[in-house]
Design goal:
Largest sheet: 6 strands, antiparallel
Strand order of the largest sheet: 8-9-11-10-12-13
Number of helices: 8
Number of strands: 15
Helix content: 25-40%
Distance between the termini: 67 Å
Oligomer: single chain
Radius of gyration: 22 Å
């Protein structure tokens, strides 16, 4: 068994890599093996159904490493680019290990690290919420405090606010201000049909999706009736300001995008669609069955749509 997987005509691709064909998955795992062979490190997937490998020996820092985001990145580019993407990813992780040695954040004073504090949004089910400083802003996700280090992102230990004499709310406000100052997403208006469009915020920053927590400060992002919001992965925020009943056309478009882009990643956050109004995010449930988009909004959203429809007539 190669690295914990059995490669052959009857072998199956694990669910976490379902976007690969069997041949692509085998090529991905072998490319990983080639990278670590150069470091003389031993690679093993102890539980092949889980996207986590164990490294030991050699020159690469030993430990367990997740590979879902990397697999998503590789799936989006030609196979010829995979070795370089894998090298970029793990070279950055090796540099992150040096970050950890250089920046002892648990012992740091507030003034030393205050400009490094930031806020990320992640999938609630995939993160150790009991070890993080969190808020729950968008249903199904958590917002959490991190240090944005030169080569890595490290969570803020739970004991630091008390040590620093700061409240968690103060640190979240500081973290969001730092994100707004440092991350500079590209902003694009995307037309769905004449008169109906949405705004896409995209960028390489791991904190692009965090701009969802600053909608009230973004130009023309909110209105009297609120905003449709999607954060499929860490590099993207999609918004549609609700101005009239035509927003129902944006619902389906953004819903489909949220599902597809969340599946692609990297840094998947949520396949959901949200309604932001008066400082609160409400989930707008839907499901996709074949070519059918089935939308089941909460009563208050329907009441808003009916009122807007009445104004239109």
């Amino acid at each position: 068994m190669a690295f914990g997987f059995r490669f052959g005509k009857k072998s199956q691709v694990p669910p976490w890599a379902a976007f690969f064909t069997r041949e692509q998955f085998e090529a991905f795992v072998n490319a990983l093996g080639d990278y670590f062979a150069r470091h003389k490190s031993k690679m093993k997937f102890p539980k092949p159904a889980e996207p986590r490998m164990t490294l030991s020996g050699g020159t690469f820092p030993p430990g367990q490493y997740g590979v879902v985001n990397l697999a998503q990145v590789c799936h989006q580019v030609p196979v010829e680019e995979w070795p370089q993407r894998i090298a970029d990813h793990f070279d950055a992780l090796a540099a992150a290990a040096k970050d950890h040695e250089q920046f002892n954040v648990r012992a740091a004073e507030f003034e030393q690290v205050k400009e490094m504090i930031a806020v990320r949004i992640g999938d609630e089910e995939s993160l150790p919420t009991d070890k993080l400083l969190v808020r729950r802003d968008l249903p199904g996700t958590i917002s959490y405090l991190v240090f944005d280090l030169p080569h890595s992102v490290e969570s803020v230990p739970r004991e630091l606010p008390e040590k620093w004499g700061k409240t968690v709310d103060e640190l979240f406000a500081l973290g969001l201000a730092n994100v707004k100052a440092s991350a500079q997403p590209e902003v694009e208006q995307v037309e769905i049909q004449p008169g109906v469009s949405f705004t896409a915020y995209t960028g390489e920053s791991f904190f692009t999706a965090s701009f969802a927590l600053m909608l009230d400060s973004l130009p023309d992002a909110t209105g009297e009736h609120g905003t449709l919001v999607a954060i499929p992965h860490r590099h993207m925020l999609l918004v549609h300001r609700i101005e009239n009943a035509d927003c129902i056309r944006a619902v389906q478009h953004l819903g489909v995008l949220a599902v597809n882009l969340d599946a692609q990643g990297p840094g998947s956050i949520s396949p959901n669609l949200y309604w932001y109004r008066n400082g609160t995010f409400t989930n707008l449930p839907f499901r996709i069955e074949g070519e059918d988009f089935i939308f089941r909004p909460p009563p208050e959203f329907m009441e808003m749509l009916e009122a807007l429809s009445a104004e239109k007539t």
